[in-house]
Amino acid sequence: MKFYAYVLHNVGPKMFWSFDKDNLHHAHTFQVEADSVDAAANLVWILTNVGSHDELRLHHPHLAGYAAQVTDYRTRENRSLSVGDAIVFLERERLAGIVSVATVGFDEVKNFDMSALTNVNNDGVVSDARRAHGEFGRKPEWSPNA
Q1: Which residues contact 46 (CB under 8 A, 6 or more apart)?
Q2: Residue 58 to residue 85: CA distance in whole angstroms
Q3: Which of 130, 124, 109, 81 has the alpha carbon at shortest distance from 22?
Q4: Residues 83-133: pLDDT tens digits?
Q5: φ, ψ at 133 (rounded to 5°)
Q6: Which sequence spans correspond to the domains of the chain?
Q7: What is the CA 51 to chain-centroid distance, rounded?
Q8: Are strands 106-108 and 94-101 parallel, antiparallel or unpaired?
Q9: Degrees, nearest 5: CA angle 134-32-4
Q10: Taking the CA atoms of the chain, what radius of gyration do you get in angstroms?
Q11: In the beta sheet, which residues pair with residue 84?
Q12: What is the per-residue burial (b if ≥16 Cβ within 10 Å, else e) of 52-89?
């Protein structure tokens, strides 16, 4: 099956710890092929956690066809997929599934507001998620050491 995989980063006080549907920001939309949503989620995990297209080709040569998408993902300053982030899968216009990254594997997400995907694209020098991350890091009431 061919999926559009919308990668959404959790940027807020719970990032890297748990899923928070109110703080999701679009990082990138991948186009992937997989037999199921679970297989697609594992594929997207690999694509978002390699550092470059060269690393993808070295460690996952069978996925070399995704190298350009990995480059686009990293060029827009996106971090690796982490606990609390989400992936929305569409098969054409049909919702195929939504998962959040868990400590181990993925959890199914229900009651997701699909308006979060309105006006998302892979354009711009940095992604919406990277922009949100920069803004969150400048908030005086939050500190990574708090």
Answers
A1: 56, 60, 63
A2: 26
A3: 109
A4: 999 999 999 889 999 999 999 999 999 988 888 888 899 998 999 999 988
A5: -65, -45
A6: 2-137
A7: 14
A8: antiparallel
A9: 65
A10: 15
A11: none
A12: ebeebbeebeebeebbebbebbbebebbebebbbbbbb
In a 13 Å sphere around the CA of 30, the CA atoms on its Cβ side amount to 27
pLDDT at 32 over 60: yes
- pTM for the full model? 0.90
Cα angle 81-83-88, degrees, rounded to a multiple of 5: 60
Rounded CA separation 133/146 (Å): 17
Look at the alpha carbons of 16, 18, 23, 27 in this order and tell me if their dihedral is positive or negative: positive
Lowest mean pLDDT among 72-76, 87-91, 130-134, 135-139: 135-139
- If one counts every other C-beta atom within 10 angstroms of the C-beta of residue 120, the result is 18
pLDDT of 9 over the 80 cut:
yes
CB 87 within 8 A of CB 24: no
